[in-house]
Specification:
heterodimer, A: alpha/beta, Rossmann fold, two-stranded antiparallel sheet, 13 helices, 17% strand, B: 302 residues, mainly alpha, 2 domains
């Protein structure tokens, strides 16, 4: 390889954009957009799947590129897929609470889909923090959720391996947030600090010492774009999430309340599928596995894959295994 | 083998930046410069180690010492490289202002400027705590790099020829050692305490500084963040009331009249709302109800 090859590949990769599947906007509210993806296979019998992504980072990671797209994999299985894009909160959103997100935005997305399909229930797929929001929603509206799928979702925030939780335990989150939003750049720094040598040094050296294949470099640059495309966090919701979950572990203790209503995991009775990343450095496996112990569902499946947090949606193995596993699980329910 | 294996990729063209260290991990870095520089430093340390190890049996004290020296050399480079890691992203004082001294923070606050002096003292005290916590974090970081060097040297077996692949493996091995050492530090109570002290002091300093800035803004008749926040909250309250009226005209009107502050988008309770609607006076609710029926069932605005 030559430096000219690498330069050319990097220059070409600058134009690589994330997102590969056709979709249409079916509803919007303020900065939120609800998308429905166009089917690419014979539709199956399962109810629509609504993907609830985290407020941290952007949801296009679910559909990064053709060979790294959880959404494309689900579409290929004949599923009808919807996705919530929360947008980029601005200064005017600083007082938006978790209740606004869950009982306001998420609830209205669900109602919109159910009305469009003339259904009473849909399938909910929550990713990471979106999984926590999905658990809360399912607890508040069990009659709206047929099946609940959680992916790399923290439930017990006080497991010994949870570095983020340890770090924030003694931090005055109210003072950090104040009345403002939390800049995405601050979260980027926080996440890089979890593994500073790998994430700020080694991965770039690896890129340099590998072959300058355009596809490899485009893949890298798309993921790089996603990693640092971090929306600011609405201050109120961030403060609530960190205080209630990371500091007080209310979700696992059945002490969480959203809009004045109790969230009890032991009251969740719908079928549940929990996808766990065995090498997840952000959400330790034990933090996710706890859901099986805490949920009241009699039909609970845990699928643990030897993948990291991001690998769960974009690795080659995830492409092969995750969408079929979800589709088969839904098909049988 | 090139002595600048990684650096030659940035020799010219759009990524020919200087290889200055970034201010902190994750801060804007000029292309591959810092990473290539870091890797080159490591390669130089590894080559030095290999050369010395060739003169001494790998299992001897001299071999082990040369490995440690190489790893420590790289660790020293990283110490400089990450020197700004725990530096807050804002300056402590306005340009030209003198740094606080203990005399100032302990001076009595008297007279007309009492409140301003107290605020400045609180900010100065917070800054002192921040600097102290920063020092603790830097010491822990330094200890981590030393532990990584020790671990690295204990794993080395300098028996293979000096190839690029060998240096690649050594580099990856060093990263493994460094991450493991860092993980031990990062999970420790000392680190968590220092980090919390650093963040909490920074928050307090920012709060006091913002309060001072607001005071200046008022003097200049400029809108302040507090005033904008107040307007934002009023707007939220109005949105909540309008939303409630659109969903349930009668109940919403009653809520609008009674509620002092917005309730965060609670789920409607149709049965109760219908009961209230039935018991409401027709003249009071009819108009609202008719206008609501002419709209879509659910507002699309938040």
């Amino acid at each position: 390889m030559t430096s000219a090859d690498l330069k050319a590949a990097l220059a070409a990769a600058r134009h690589a954009t994330a997102g590969c599947s056709d979709k249409e906007e079916v509803w919007r509210s303020a900065k939120l957009r609800l998308y429905r993806y166009r089917s690419i296979a014979k539709p199956g019998q399962a109810a629509p799947v609504l993907i609830v992504y985290a407020l941290v980072n952007r949801p296009y990671m679910m559909d990064l590129q053709e060979d790294r797209s959880l959404i494309r994999g689900l579409l290929a299985q004949g599923l009808d897929v919807y996705l919530i894009d929360w947008g980029y909160p601005g200064g005017a959103d600083r007082f938006t609470t978790l209740a606004d997100y869950i009982e306001g935005f998420l609830h209205r997305c669900v109602e919109q889909i159910l009305r469009n399909h003339g259904l009473e229930k849909l399938n909910l797929l929550g990713v990471c923090q979106g999984g926590v929001m999905s658990l809360c929603y399912a607890a508040l509206h069990p009659g709206r959720v047929r099946n609940l799928i959680t992916m790399v979702t923290p439930v017990d925030f006080h497991t010994p391996e949870d570095l983020l939780s340890k770090w924030v335990r003694k931090i005055d989150i109210g003072a950090v947030v104040g009345d403002g939003n939390v800049p995405g750049a601050v979260l980027n720094q926080l996440f890089l600090s979890l593994m500073p040598f790998r994430l700020t040094q080694q991965k770039y050296v690896e890129l340099l010492r590998g072959a300058p294949e355009p596809k490899r470099i485009e893949n890298f640059m798309r993921v790089e774009q996603w990693i640092f495309d971090s929306p600011d966090q609405a201050g109120a919701a961030f403060r609530e999430f960190v205080t209630w979950c990371y500091q007080e572990n209310r979700l696992a203790r059945n002490r969480l309340e959203i809009a004045g209503r109790a969230i009890r995991l032991d009251a969740l009775r719908m079928p549940m599928l929990n996808l766990v990343g065995a090498r997840d450095h952000l959400v330790p496996p034990a933090a996710s596995r706890a859901l099986q112990r805490l949920a009241g569902s009699g039909d609970f499946t845990t699928l643990e894959l030897d993948l990291g947090h991001i690998g769960m949606y974009v690795s080659a193995r995830a492409q092969r295994e995750v969408p079929p596993a979800i589709a088969q699980w839904l098909e049988s329910r | 083998m090139s002595s600048d294996f990684w650096r030659h990729w940035q020799a010219s063209g759009p990524f020919a930046w200087s290889s200055g260290a970034p201010a902190s991990p994750g801060s804007a870095a000029p292309g591959f410069g810092p990473f290539a520089d870091s890797a080159e430093r490591f390669a130089a340390a590894a080559r030095d180690f290999m050369a010395k190890a060739g003169l001494a049996p790998p299992t001897s004290n001299a071999g082990s010492q040369s490995a440690y020296t190489a790893a420590e050399g790289f660790g020293n480079f990283l110490r400089d490289h990450f020197a700004g890691c725990f530096t807050p992203p804002w300056p402590p004082y306005p340009a030209g202002a003198a740094a606080p001294v203990t005399d100032f923070t302990e001076a009595p606050a008297l007279g007309l400027a009492r409140e301003q002096v107290l605020r400045a003292q609180r900010a100065a005290e917070a800054w002192s705590r921040l600097v102290e916590a920063q020092g603790r974090l830097q010491r822990l970081w330094s200890d981590t790099l030393r532990a990584a060097a020790t671990e690295f040297s204990s794993r080395l077996l300098p028996s293979e020829p000096l190839t690029q692949e060998a240096i690649d493996r050594l580099y990856d091995q060093w990263i493994d050692c460094a991450e493991q050492a860092y993980a031990r530090t990062a999970h420790s109570d000392d680190f968590c305490d220092a980090l919390a002290a650093f963040v909490n002091a920074g928050s307090q300093w920012r709060r006091e500084s913002a309060a001072g800035t607001e005071e200046w803004a008022k003097l200049l008749d400029l809108p302040t963040r507090s005033e904008i926040n107040e307007l934002t909250l009023r707007l939220r309250e109005l949105e909540a009331r309008v939303g409630a009226m659109e969903k349930h005209p009668v109940r919403g009107t009653q809520q609008a009249a009674a509620a002092p502050s917005p309730s965060p988008a609670r789920a409607p309770r149709p049965a109760r709302a219908a009961k209230r609607a039935r018991s409401a006076k027709p003249s009071a609710s009819g108009n609202v109800a008719r206008s609501a029926r002419s709209r879509p069932a659910r507002s699309k605005r938040k």
